[in-house]
Amino acid sequence: MALYRRFALTILAISASVGVQAGFQIPENDKTREQQADEIFGDDGWFWALMSSAQGDYGSSITRPPTPNPTRRPTDFGSRPPTPNPTRRPSITRPPTPNPTRLPTDYGSSITRPPTPNPTKRPTMVPVVDECSIDVTIDCVEIGGIGRDCYRLPTQSLECNRDIRSLSFTYIAGSCSQSANTQSDSCVEVGGVPTGISRITCKNDQDEDVFNDIVNVDQTFTIPAFEPLSDHLTCEIASLDRQKRQTVRIDTSGNEDIYLKDIYGGLQLESCNNKNCLVPVEYTYTIENTHTRPMTVTLLERTTFSRRELNGESTGGTETNNLIDLVEDKILEPGQSTEAKEESVVDLCVTGEYETKVVVKADPPVGLPCEATDEYEILTVAKECRVNVDITCEDLDGRDCNDIETYLNCHEGNVINRIGELTFTYLGGTCDQSSNSQNDECEDLNGGPPRNRRMRIICHSGDANDDMTVLFFNDIVPVGETFIVNNNPVGRPLPRDLICEIIDPVDNEKRQCVTIATRGEDEGLYLKDVLGSLRVEGCDSNNCYVPIIYTYTLENVGQTPMEITEYELSRDGSTENLLDKIDDKNLEVGETRILQDEEVIDTCVENEFLTTISVEADPPEGVPCTGVDEYIVETDLKKDCRVDVDIICEDQDEKNCNDIPVPSFNCNINGCADALSFSYTGKPCDDNSQDESCEQIADGIFISTYIECFDEVNMPLFQDTVTLGDVVDLQETTSRSGNNVRCELFASRRGAKFQEVQINRCEDLSLKNEYGGLSLESCDEKKCIVPIEYTYKIQNIGGVPMEITEIMRILDGQSPTDLIGIVEDTNLAVGETTTASETSDIDICVQGEYKTEVRVKADPPDGSVCNGEDSYEIVISVDPTRPPTPEPTPPATPMPTPRPTPRPTPRPTPFPTPEGTPMPTPRPTPRPTPRPTPRPTPFPTPEGDTSEPPSAESEQCFVSVDTDCTPSGESQDCGSVVVTRTRCENRPLAMVFRYNGGTCAQSDNIQNSDLFQCEDFQGGPPTEVGVTSFITATDIKGGSIVYHAATVEVGSEYTVAEQPFEVEPNINITIWKSPLTVFENLVQTLVFHSSCSQNLFLKDRFGASQLVVFVNEVQGLQSCFFNATYTINVANGIRGTKATLRTLSSATNYGFFNFSEQVNGIALDVGQTLTPAPSFEVVIDLTVVTNNEVLSIITAESEFGLTCSDTDFFSFVTGLAIPPNVPTRAPTSAPTRTPLPTPDPELTACALQSIVNCNVQNGGGLLDCDNIAPPSRSICLSGAPPRELEFIYRGGSCPGDATFPCQGQANRNQVWITIISSNQNILWNRITPRDTFMDLRGVDESMTVEISTIVNGRVGTRLQFMEISTLCIAQANLRLKEFFGALQLAEFTTVGNDGIASANAAFAKVVVTYAVQLVAGTSIRARIIQATSSSGLVSDQVVETYPLPGELLQPRDTYVFGEQERIIDLTETNGDERFSYSLDVLAISASSPALTCASSESVFFDVS
Questions:
Q1: Beta strand spans in 267-399 (E)
Q2: Predicted pLDDT of residue 463
Q3: What is this structure's pTM?
């Protein structure tokens, strides 16, 4: 071939010398003829063009051979120099005429060779020999796809789409510093840089492995997925012994760009979905015997040369291999051909060359060997345009803008150091806007400074007229401008008190004078303090306003040059075009452009400064590209926390509590009093204000009572149940009603009368008169009890956000009460204010002083807590001429009640009491918002003391008692302890089960039927508490391991353990009637999966056993029980005398605790607290909802022998999922009481007590028969998950327009429903009949619902599946009565910012139970002879007569006649429906049929 090339050059020389041009133009320049020939004809095509042009001169002795493939140029592989930029050649088109024409070439500014869209290849010239002739050709095609020729492979776009389902990476090893991508990627080296073969593990956001294998360097691996990948992919590169080396985190959510060839530490991205950089190709080498004799192929030598350009770097090399073993048939007959094939990979995402040359040799039977060669070249050209934008920000000291710290405290580090320089902003305005922690002296003069005019400011050390005064500043300053006050040039500190005067420059009138303390030992000074019209901006070197420098860097990270065409800066809502600020807008690959920008930010307020740079660039060809980056500067205040507290007390007319006038006590100044109100005190008739006006029918003190009041014509004035302290408001009377009012007091609505009082409203009527258990509180417009409101204003005056963690309110030195639950907002940003409000009733008819203190604790995000406090004192002065009362009433301490008042405490259970110890039974206030009143006056006097009671409170004592409950050893309250269905995450060491008894049908778990199986025999285990069964727990391999084998009572616990070993993965529990383990005694057997690798939760039920405790090495002890410590706090008040304690007891639903022997005789001084406080412990079971109640009673004597007492009723609910319940306390205390009278058996043969118990069984526990009302909201829009949801299973299919995922239909009368929240809380999992109300607690953002058939008491085939959003937003459409497939929404409960729960129910499921028992304390048995109930709407009563019990009613028996259920649609009520349920029972005495007894009980409720 070289001979032919030299021949062509000779022809060129001859043509040039004689002026003959063979169909082409010779360039007139200084290039060599060889270069000229190359430029005209190309590297490979010049020979044939020359031959065709010279053919006419030299005849036809040279014949162009046939060309099945494009011609190729020879390549010198041995000495090819590296090429910094890829070269491209033009395609050669054969001219149809014998004279070739020169092709025009546009070489572009950055390309060294003309482009060649398709590579060419040529046949090999084989010398003609007589003995041997061979030919070889190279073909290359894409593997897969459409089988394109390799020179037709398309250029690949690098950008991945947003819906990423699979990724492939090449493991390139190396450190995080080689990362090259546009993400804010995270790459961390843990134990060194990955270098060789490694184990790579990739996980999704759910911490699930999506790839885990050993990978070699340069090996490619794929992460497949059938659904889009999670938002992030985290890959760990570790050594073969699993020592972690590197962790990379890649955003695959689509929020950040991801490109092929991106490098993340030791990984390089090669493909995403179907877009792949690395394309497999197949080379085919065809060898043909073109001679007439056979031959043997002896050599097939392939040499490859590759070169790739990426990010300005060139890689590649040369490799030679003998492929003779790949030749299919080495002996070729004349005309016969054979092939050899091999595969390779072409990278379409980089610019590169892949050249392949083969040399074939063959031996004939006789003669010289022959050989042939061929070449194939693939050119890839990547032209992706990518521009990367990066923003950095630093202050003048080189600190990152988010690391700048400003100390708000001007005395940080040295509190006695005085300040040398202060910077202020002049705000204008009066002293009212001051906000600081100094006792600032600010005085406005002549109306104060205006806000719209500049003023003269003079700052000095003392009197401006004093010659000794030092002047520090004197100038006119506009509003909004800053100015500096210092002691320069002296350089000394400013004076202890800096005085600044604001003077009007127009009339020279002084408008304001401010004194500022500059010594930290006196009063603190902080940046942003406002002192009158001045705001502190800086003190010495500590300044709020800090200059910062933004740096914007643009980098061409693509594969082609680009021109910046758009360059925009956005900040604080404004934009600026920066394009003209860069001199050179053209960037070569890898080049950068940098701009800087300076700003000043205020670091003393919490703020965010968002800066965004948007860039667009155009490549020479192709699609433009964009780049965006943003930087957020968040001011970081230096650990400074300041909280200010202010107490405001006003009555309903917004009058200051100390300005409320005391009324006149005489109610008959204008004749008869028409409107009267009393408070119920529970006192007997011993001392009455009007002679003979009170009749005591039965002794005893009643915490609650039913009161009926009538006028003289028996018109009812009041009929209701009240408790101690409640107000009895009588309807307005007139002269036609007579002068007297009669009030009758009953033990209950249907109980016996114990007191009757007569009140003359026209004579000797004065406020505070007492009529037995009633005390006159108001007459007409005169009122003793005045409602007041305390407002506690809490402001964050510091420099950091804070969370209010404690608001302790202390009344008259009593035990503090935390009001954190009623504050409007506990999280305060800088400058924000929140309030907590309480309502209270104050008795302005009793002289006294009442001090209220509030102490607030707040936590900043970092640093120490801060505190603030304030106090308020109410002083009531009563005219000494007021009419005397028979017994002085000590002044009542106003007991504030949080606003709004929470719902009443649930009905407590009566407690058994020891003989001789009277125990009152508290019952709930019927009104949903009882009005709290002052602490009732203790009234009993020592037995036998008939002397006139003293007239001074100094002779009385004022003991108090309250009860607290905390989990033993902890500080939280008992009501906030919850146990959710905690998932077991590691194989247990031990498990504790509660033996509930019952059949397999009560199982409640989500283990599938392969793991959990349960079978009952002979009706299953017993359910009556105390009945015993023999329980064995073993492994399922034949009982080789016995974990438990003993007798267990229903209601007790048993343990499954074999210390120190973990339990087996599967356990068999078998229950027998007795220890005789024969088949006749078998009642239940089951197996379940116990290793925790599958679903196992605390509270799971497996047949008759419920998991209540498990222990493992990962989670430790997880239990459904906790030890609760009740503490009884006793104190003597700050008024009165020393108190000697006599009795102290607490009645609970866990038993009766008497501390009288422990405290009797202990004397407490005024203000002293009993220490140590008595306490007791109980174990609380969280597997069931329990109303825990404690009634504590304390009695004591004063130094003068007067008895004082106090009671406290405390309750909280446990066993609920979320949220925690806050313990509630009875609003008032009760005085001591005497025992109830014992009935005389000679006068009463038998005594019955009818029971009508009304309950609402839905509504999340917030509905009862006293407060059934239509919903206030029909759709849940609180923006957060509800506290509780209630659905009804109605049956149905998915709606056609469903806005939530829904499949299938469920119309069976009984199905299995499983509902699980997005946080894996099991909300419901059981057999569910149609119309069942499902109360769901533990709701979070969404829930999945599976409705299935029932097979052998377990889950069968799925009928319907739904995924329902449970966020209270409009899109979720949580609307009452809305259908979600087969479920209908019946109720939702939300919790407001005040912590008060609110239920909105579409239906009320009311269940009324009718029963009867003997009156407590009676012993005569009775035979029921008639029982009738009336029920329903008052206007439509239904009467039912019950079958009679066959047995006598014993003293401790309760006989239930039956129950009635009524579903009330609260969305369709007319608002005035009244329901009545009553029971009338008649019985005869067992000893004599002639002696009968009867009882009636009724329950009324309104739906309004």
A1: 267-272, 275-276, 278-289, 295-310, 313-322, 331-332, 337-347, 351-363, 370-380, 387-395
A2: 59
A3: 0.38
